[in-house]
Amino acid sequence: MQKVNRHILLNPGPATTTDSVKYAQVVPDICPRENDFFHIMHFVSSELTSFVADKEQYATVLFGGSGTASVESILSSVMTDGAIVIINNGAYGQRLCEIAHAYQLDWYEFKSPPDHPIQLDILKTFIQKLPKTVSYLAVVHNETTTGLLNDIEAIGTICKEKNIEMMVDAMSSFAAIPIDMNKMNIAYLAASSNKNLQGMAGISFVIAPKNKLEKKKTTKPTNYYLNLHSQFKYFIETGQMRFTPPVQTIYALKQAIIELKEEGVKERYERYSQLWETLIEGLTKLGFKYIVPAENHSKLITAILEPTCKAYNFTNMHDYFYKNSITIYPGKLKNMNSFRVANIGDLTVNDINLFLTIMEEYLQYIGIDTKEENLAGILYESK
Ligand SMILES: Cc1ncc(COP(=O)(O)O)c(C=O)c1O
């Protein structure tokens, strides 16, 4: 197997993949309506379930699409009565609100700061005081905007007390942070193939208890391609997706699942956490400040405050890294200027050290003396 030219992706997915995952896509052409393909689909869907739940009781529904497809599928398929509370503490919480708005759901936004944990007592009071009965709550697990890790277990407990179904956007936590859907009281979980799973982009999926997926039979459909119940029913009856799947992406996903099982979810998270510790130690030495305190951090993606010194410019810095085969990512926060570095994918500590070396070189290139004692004072111009 010839090695593929390696790029270090420090954007929050698609992440750096192994060559074996890349090469898994190179297969003889196959019609996805064939039995041979059914076996692959079955493997992928049941193994994805097993990472977070008991596959006798829960199932995974696959869609061709980016991550947003699965989130949109849940929000547009599931609600029959009552209102939904959407927790918004970043760009992906905001996206949940935008989807709810697009489908004209009966939704209420619970806003929370992007850099602090959700105050659970305030959330409880918020739910209690709403004029409507709340039947659903949607929350992002790892808010990719900042790396803030929302405490879904505690929110799940509140939902249990109040008989609310919790929907979790686990796009950037699934396959790294251990999740137990039953224990955490998650009714619906959305994720995709191309982040911590280390597969290719193109598959979005929903995991839910089978009885919830089967349930909705009589209510008027509000969607078509993304209809969760129809997609599940068709898969049970035929072993296929209703519409053309991204065939080669599914072969890559099968390989990515095999590699995740070999590594283990807990062990993958330990590897990622070690990369994060290396990253943070190095960035702090170079004078950078990051937004979310370590105790509330997912340790998977970090929003770093942009330096305020005149010589700094994100596009220049991005291009400097890109020339060195490293991709970094712009920020997404409204009131704080930030850029983002993710530490997910097929990466090692050497990759993070290389990133730090190039960062030091870049700072020198824009005229910063990296031997200075108080680099933060220079980067953030407090001198
Ligand atoms: C938490 C979260 N939700 C949803 C999405 C949307 O995924 P996609 O861009 O694949 O549609 C992302 C992507 O980064 C994400 O991080």
Task: Provide an overview of this structure.
The protein is an alpha/beta fold and 383 residues long. The chain folds into two domains: 18-262, Aspartate Aminotransferase, domain 2, CATH 3.40.640.10; 265-379, Aspartate Aminotransferase, domain 1 (Alpha-Beta Complex), CATH 3.90.1150.10. It contains 13 helices and 14 strands. A seven-stranded mixed beta sheet has the order 2-10-9-8-5-3-4, with helices on both faces. Strands 11-14-13 form a three-stranded antiparallel beta sheet, with no helix packed on it. Helix 10 runs parallel beside helix 12 (349-365). The model has no long low-confidence stretch (mean pLDDT 96). Pyridoxal-5'-phosphate is lined by residues 12-13, 66-68, 71, 92, 140, 144, 169, 171-172, 192.
Task: Please describe the structure with a list of short key phrases separated by commas or semicolons.
alpha/beta, Aspartate Aminotransferase, domain 2, Aspartate Aminotransferase, domain 1, 2 domains, seven-stranded mixed sheet, 14 strands, 39% helix, binds pyridoxal-5'-phosphate
